[in-house]
Inverse folding.
């Protein structure tokens, strides 16, 4: 190891063997991996496994993984004994080494989100899991004599007390919540507070992002203030800590892309925090539905997906804007683009059954339009649906498909959200 390396580089270089065994290797055919020394096996290099290495001592030291396999299988020397299950052989015949997967924690979105502060994440990550070296843990290990909280000087310092149960930390967090319009006393611990925060402030808007920044900044500043009092014997008044956290919220969210719908509450909170309130407003669009030419019918369809339930709907109208038929069906929950294709298919089936010869299809789904016209790939689950639709369209004398804005597709949108029975309904207009 070169002596000119920095302390950080030397520490990394020193632990290179621990890093090496945790690297995921794609072995492939194994031509570039040494059978003995490379960690292609889940248990590490074969050379480090004494009992197995002795059993296979007749294999040369310079042999590769590829040299001991034939026709996507192990040679006879490895098919017996405890080394019979070296690793998993996948269908392609390639050898792979897989790392274990771990479940996703529910609080990840409160730490890692667009615009988060990376320097706060390690502290918050440890605090939520109660892994910080608080005085109660140090007292238990015998390295700390005084277990009194450094912030309030009245109760023992534990994770539950330090983060939002202490009078100092509770005052700071309550005043931050008041700025966001919530009067709440945090007395259930950091994990419960994060869970309430995650359920209350959803989405990617300005306010939700600002409160996540406030949460991580509060935890980080409280821990920083605790360490300042322990190691430097200096203290900061809680009002100054509150001001520092509010400044971070202000400057961090100042230039973020805002997506909130402008509302009285959001404007009030933005004014209190000193944030610019220039949320994206919905622009008005003027559009109308035009009837089809004579001897032609127009199909408008739409789809809806809500509460794990999919539904489709639509209607066919003539050249005088007369309604020829309406339909509404419940469908199995799929993606909205797949449901849009199903809605168009059902409408085309009805048009064919009514002996309509010329059909104009309008949809507010640009994705469905591009799939039908071949400008983008169809999902594999809907290949059959697309083939049926294409076969039906060839039976018409004339057909075309075009895009329509959602504002002009309101009747189909209503029918797609209509509370219909599972088998669906088809409504034919009454004749005079």
């Amino acid at each position: 190891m070169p002596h000119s390396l920095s302390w950080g580089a030397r520490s990394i270089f020193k632990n290179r063997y621990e890093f090496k065994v945790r690297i995921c290797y794609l072995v492939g055919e194994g031509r570039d991996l040494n059978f003995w020394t490379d960690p292609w096996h889940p248990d590490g290099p074969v050379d480090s496994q004494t009992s197995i290495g002795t059993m296979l001592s007749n294999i040369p030291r310079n042999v590769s993984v590829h040299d001991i396999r034939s026709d996507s299988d192990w040679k006879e020397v490895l098919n017996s004994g405890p080394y019979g299950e070296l690793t998993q052989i996948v269908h392609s015949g390639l050898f792979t080494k897989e790392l274990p997967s771990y479940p996703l924690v529910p609080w990840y979105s409160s730490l890692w989100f667009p615009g988060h502060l990376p320097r706060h994440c390690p502290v918050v990550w440890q605090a939520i899991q109660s892994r910080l070296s608080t005085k109660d843990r140090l007292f238990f290990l015998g390295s700390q004599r005084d277990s009194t909280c450094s912030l309030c000087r009245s109760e023992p310092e534990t994770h539950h007390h330090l983060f939002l149960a202490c009078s100092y930390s509770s005052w700071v967090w309550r005043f931050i919540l008041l700025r966001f319009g919530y009067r709440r006393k945090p007395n259930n611990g950091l994990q419960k507070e994060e869970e309430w925060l995650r359920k209350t402030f959803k989405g990617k808007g300005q306010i939700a992002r600002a409160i996540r920044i406030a949460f991580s900044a509060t935890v980080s500043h409280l821990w920083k203030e605790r360490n300042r009092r322990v190691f430097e014997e200096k203290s900061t008044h809680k009002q100054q800590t509150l001001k520092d956290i509010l400044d971070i919220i202000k400057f961090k969210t100042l230039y973020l892309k805002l997506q909130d719908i402008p509302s009285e509450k959001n404007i009030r909170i933005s004014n209190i925090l000193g944030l610019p309130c220039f949320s994206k407003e919905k622009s008005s669009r003027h559009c109308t539905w035009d009837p089809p030419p004579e001897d032609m019918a127009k199909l408008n369809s739409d789809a809806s997906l809500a509460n794990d339930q999919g539904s489709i709907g639509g209607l066919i109208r003539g050249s005088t804007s007369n309604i020829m038929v309406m339909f509404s069906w419940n469908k199995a929950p799929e993606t909205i683009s797949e449901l849009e294709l199903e809605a168009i298919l059902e409408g085309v089936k009805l048009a064919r059954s009514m002996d309509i010869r010329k059909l104009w299809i309008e949809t507010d789904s640009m994705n469905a339009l591009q799939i039908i016209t071949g400008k983008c790939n169809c999902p594999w689950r809907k290949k059959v649906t697309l083939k049926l639709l294409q076969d039906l369209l060839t039976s018409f004398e004339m057909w075309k498909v075009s895009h329509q804005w959602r504002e002009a597709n309101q009747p189909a949108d209503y029918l797609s959200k209509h509370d219909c029975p599972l088998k669906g309904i088809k409504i034919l207009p009454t004749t005079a």
